[in-house]
């Protein structure tokens, strides 16, 4: 079984970009890319890792995120997807009808159009289950928001 040839940098970037565009998560490591996106087997060489990191650093929508512990891969240097701003999310929704709940991540904090800061506890197809955050604490009852509502479309990530 042949190894993926990481020395063809343009093919590597194209394959990785295609995988990352469809990737539902927001944090990834090179080992996950090696096994899942590139169909690699065995352990990637240091040169393979270096080429994948070089490709990742060229993608404007992925930023280094320090080390993260993965169940399958252990502690790895990771990359985090840069959050989409409001206009990018609206454009994405308009172009391909993507449901908003795929763009709003569980445990993420978002400011609604009414100024409330909400923490998303669960993101489902029919509901975003949220709690309002006041002074760093969850308050009040759980709030359910339909993911395709105008309110959900206008929620902006809070850092």
Give structural notes:
By secondary structure, the protein is an alpha+beta fold. The chain folds into 2 domains: 9-81; 86-157. It has 5 helices and 8 strands. The chain has helices at 9-22, 30-37, 46-58, 86-96, 150-153; strands spanning 27-29, 62-70, 74-81, 109-111, 117-123, 128-134, 137-145, 156-157. The chain has a 5-stranded antiparallel β-sheet with strand order 7-6-5-4-8. A 3-stranded antiparallel β-sheet has the order 1-3-2. Strand 4 (109-111) and strand 5 (117-123) form a beta hairpin. The longest helix has 14 residues, at 9-22.
Describe the protein's topology.
Blueprint lengths: L8 H14 L4 E3 H8 L8 H13 L3 E9 L3 E8 L4 H11 L12 E3 L5 E7 L4 E7 L2 E9 L4 H4 L2 E2 L2
Features:
2 domains; about 160 residues; elongated; 3-stranded antiparallel β-sheet; 8 strands; 5-stranded antiparallel β-sheet; 5 helices; alpha+beta
Shape from CA axes? elongated
Distance between the termini: 45 Å
CA radius of gyration: 18 Å
- The number of helical runs is 5
Largest sheet report: 5 strands, antiparallel
Detail the poorly predicted runs.
Answer: none
* Mean pLDDT value: 82
How would you write the strand order of the largest sheet?
A: 7-6-5-4-8
Number of self-contained structural domains: 2
Percentage of β-strand residues:
25-35%
């Amino acid at each position: 079984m042949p190894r993926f040839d990481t020395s063809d940098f343009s093919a590597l970037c194209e394959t990785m970009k295609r995988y990352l565009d469809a990737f539902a998560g927001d944090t990834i490591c090179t080992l996950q890319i090696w096994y899942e996106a590139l169909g690699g087997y065995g352990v990637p060489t240091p040169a393979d890792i270096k080429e994948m990191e070089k490709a990742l650093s060229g993608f404007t929508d992925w930023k280094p995120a320090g080390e993260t512990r993965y169940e399958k891969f252990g502690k790895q240097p990771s990359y985090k997807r840069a959050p989409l701003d409001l206009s990018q999310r609206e454009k994405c929704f308009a172009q391909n009808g993507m449901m908003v709940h795929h763009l709003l991540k569980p445990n993420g904090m978002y400011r609604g159009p009414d100024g409330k800061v909400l923490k998303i506890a669960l993101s489902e197809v029919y509901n975003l289950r949220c709690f309002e955050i006041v002074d760093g604490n969850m308050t009040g009852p759980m709030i359910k928001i339909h993911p395709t509502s105008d309110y959900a479309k206008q929620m902006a990530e809070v850092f």
